[in-house]
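Researcher: Here's a chain I'd like modeled. Treat it as a single chain, no partners, no ligands.
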Amino acid sequence: MVDLRSAKCRCGKQSSFGVPGGKAVCCAKCQGPGMVIRSHATCRCGKIPSYGLPGCKAVCCPTCKDPDMVNLKHAMCRCGKMPSFGIPGGKAACCATCKDPGMVIRSHATCRCGKRSSFGIPGGKAVCCPTCKDPDMVSLVHAMCRCGKRSSFGAPGGKAVCCPTCKDPDMVNLRSARCRCGKVPSFGVHGGKSVCCSSCKDIGMVRVRRR
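Model: Modeled as a single isolated chain. Structure tokens:
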């Protein structure tokens, strides 16, 4: 038996795309040229709307929205910006500018002290900040060396996989900019970044970083 209530695409999947003003007849994979999503209310451009007048339905996408429209799909701060701060244990309700005293960042996982968490048990989620972390916790935000320290060395053009202590002889520092010879750079073009050491500097380069 097949579902006779919901329109299906020719491949058997639920249809969600069709010609503007028509019914949904194809899935996303089988959609033809010029088809737009029809299984949801759409903006005049064919995209899924998220903006509208306060208290009304979403009728426009972020690109087509009118100046007086607000985001109706996500809770917003009272100033209209995306919220990232709220009371501990609650939802994000205010932006960084409008946050009330005692509010902590809620758009990211937070430590028990209210700071952003970056440490946790290997394979788990970040639950603590560097100050509150337990001895067996490691950084889950930055790539770590096999010894548990933050990695900064690796093969040229690759990823950082080792700390300065555990690095192999052919590894280079991928966290700090280095001259082509491997030394710390201190010369570059005027107003630019340091890219060469004093030995490798090109003609016209000036000192842009103190040793």
